[in-house]
Amino acid sequence: MKTKTLLVFCLITGMAITRLCAQSYQYKGETEWWTPVVCNGVEIDQLTGSNLYIHQIEHYKAGGLQWINVQVHGEITSSSGEVFQVLEIIKVGHFPQPWMLFWHDNLRGSEGNHYIMFFELNWNDEIPTITCTKAVCPGN
Question: Where are the domains of the chain?
Answer without folding.
Answer: 24-136
